[in-house]
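Here is an idea for our session: we take a single protein and study its fold together. Once you have written the record down, we can walk along the chain together.
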Amino acid sequence: MKITKASVSITSPGRNFVTLKIETDEGIYGLGDGTLNGRELAVAAYLTEHVAPCLIGRDPFQTEDIWQYLYRGAYWRRGPVSMSAIAAVDVALWDIKGKALNTPVYNLLGGRSRDGVLVYAHANGADIDKALDDVARHIDLGYLAVRAQSGIPGLASTYGVPKGGQPYEPAEKGLPKESLWSTEKYLRHVPKLFAKLRDQCGEEVHLLHDCHHRLTPIEAARLGKDLEPYRLFWLEDPTPAELQENFRLIRQHTTTPLAVGEVFNSIWDAQDLIRSQWIDYIRMSIVHAGGLTHMKKVADFAALYNVRTGCHGATDLSPVTMAAALHFGLAVHNFGIQEHMPHTTETDAVFPHHYSFKGGYMHPGDAPGLGVDLDEALAAKYPYQRAYLPINRKLDGTLFDW
């Protein structure tokens, strides 16, 4: 079997997605996701101009060699654009393998380690009472784990809380919008939210929270300590992790479990975090971290240090990545939890798939390969629309982490 064609599709059924389709001389094709929120065209150009020509004539079964070829052979390594492009190729090749061997991808990753993949939902509200209602709604839908965010008094907008009750989508059409932030107001507010949540939900529901990189290490340590009575499943992205040793300080002061990594794109971004056991969950996504070939290495390394996986799974990743993450989560032994934000009906129509949700768990399905397809005719009806993530500033105007 040889690769005969590699083409890129950009579609926007509510938000932008970049999809790579790799075709072979035996009529089997595979799909990979190359979506990078707010920078989609950069990945599409990297794939079209620099990667696709190098794939023609290669054996699609040589996933390890092709991964190393694209990573080491480019000389300029890592970075979200190149690693997303490599992931698109890698996942498409695993899809081809599964279809050619007539088996779901999870069987190629070692087979099932569990019967289903525990997922968590996103719940939010403009204030604490509305957030409580939304958490209760998701529990009624069958979720066993819920991430909770709420509006903060004195701030016009808050990360994770959509306007007008619409599903949350951080990227907005047009140039970047700006929002204002106050760490002091946030730190006073969040413990109140979780005190009421735990009182309402009882002990059985897993509760999670995302700081979105907005705290210093000592502020994150204080918040983690304040939240200990409410036994969070995890506290996500408490501080930027460019300096991995930041997490040493947080770990010294709180036993609240820590999760980080949705913006990472290689094992080197998490090497010290994992080896030093400063975190409990590694959140790298299949698409931004170089695909299944690299993520399997990350998971195996993390397993040595009792760190579990919790892959990023927001709607800025297409159903192709969701399927890949579910195959991965079903197979790896040290799986922890999978983020789940349902896509729009328009997106689901463009990407028909076999994965499903029931009783708090998801399953990738047993179709050969990933179990996801692309309706190219329908995708063409949703042209690319420029959209960016917001810009965040403190109340005094200082540009801050978003």
Observations:
- The chain is about 35% helix and 20% strand.
- The longest helix spans residues 80-101.
